[in-house]
Amino acid sequence: MSVEIHAGHDLSGANTLGLPCVAERFAAPRRVDELREVLALAGHRGWRSTLLGGGSNLILPEHLPGLVIQPSMDRWWIEAGVGDTVRVHAEAGVDWHGLVMALAGRGLWGTENLALIPGRCGAAPIQNIGAYGVELGEVIESVHLLHLDDGRESVLGADECDFGYRDSIFKRELADRVAITRLVLRLTPTPRPRLGYGDLANRVGEAAPPLAVAEAVCAVRREKLPDPAVLGNAGSFFKNPLVAPEQAERLMDEHPMLPHFFQPDGRVKLAAGWLIDQCGLKGRREGHFGVHDRQALVLVHFGGGSAEELLAFAERIIERVQARFGVTLEREPRLAG
Ligand SMILES: Cc1cc2nc3c(=O)[nH]c(=O)nc-3n(C[C@H](O)[C@H](O)[C@H](O)COP(=O)(O)OP(=O)(O)OC[C@H]3O[C@@H](n4cnc5c(N)ncnc54)[C@H](O)[C@@H]3O)c2cc1C
């Protein structure tokens, strides 16, 4: 076995919520064949495998049994494309934000609005990361996979990934069945700024290069979101709920200020942060956790708390929003183990 398996590995510093966690075993394969090797070992020994990226969208329990695998293949490269497009290959362990800034710095358009989203490339397609009017699915050409059960490799085209709002096939049919090993993105050197979201257009002009757009996105995000290095959090803790048009209409009658966004499929997206705020919960602290005082969608960990306490706190928020608006909020970060 060329990959080291560490017993009793502390993951408390490896998740942005800062939850205390010890993995029974841990491995960080740096090549696809090493990843296949550790998966085969886990299968042989009957260890449950848990995949870990940057730990920015995970709720970790105090003890994580089995084997935690953090794919750490970290190469990326640009392949000359046909015509106006450029293909970018990025392995699972590449830091997402670092890649975005490097590509924007090379004058390539497509991922600049997704700057400063924490985590690694391997996890990015799972919830189809999105921000400032852009979703990853718009620039993905294909996703390379390793199947956990038999070590087989396969490639899914973007259409087959079935991307939706914070959703993809990797959260459904392929949940816990594959490891993502590489992304292939399709970018372009032809300017195509997407400045229609938030106040981006006030910060950068239409003629700005992609790096200036990415830097503007970083500036807005730093103003609004707590830095996990300072205050534990997993970004948005709840998804923005999608409701039927009749329910949205009823709610708009009762609450004329309700922010709402009509979706192509007829449903209406509501702002979960606004709903939480209206329940008087913005800035509320209970025990070791709280609702962030500038962004009610973000739950923060002040230290010393546990996954159980966090989930119970989240449940109370869900109940309050349900009682007031009849809308059920859904958690965004995934539960490990
Ligand atoms: C401050 C902050 C801001 C954020 N802002 C945004 C935002 O604007 N938009 C957005 O969409 N998200 C946002 N997020 C959420 C998060 O950054 C993304 O979901 C990110 O893609 C998670 O990457 P990760 O490497 O940290 O994954 P992890 O949290 O480590 O894992 C997430 C899930 O992916 C699985 N996984 C990890 N790697 C692999 C792999 N190689 N193969 C298969 N499964 C794998 C894990 O098992 C887990 O289920 C934010 C989070 C934080 C803390």
Automatic annotation (TrEMBL):
This is UDP-N-acetylenolpyruvoylglucosamine reductase. Pathway: Cell wall biogenesis; peptidoglycan biosynthesis. One of its GO terms (biological process) is peptidoglycan biosynthetic process. It is an enzyme of class 1 (oxidoreductase). InterPro entries: FAD-bd_PCMH, FAD-bd_PCMH-like_sf, FAD-bd_PCMH_sub1, FAD-bd_PCMH_sub2, MurB, MurB_C, MurB_C_sf, Oxid_FAD_bind_N. PANTHER family: UDP-N-ACETYLENOLPYRUVOYLGLUCOSAMINE REDUCTASE (PTHR21071:SF4). Its EC number is 1.3.1.98. One of its GO terms (molecular function) is FAD binding. The keyword Cell division applies. The active site is at R166, S236 (proton donor), E332. Keywords: Cell cycle, Cell division, Cell shape, Cell wall biogenesis/degradation, Cytoplasm, FAD, Flavoprotein, NADP, Oxidoreductase, Peptidoglycan synthesis.
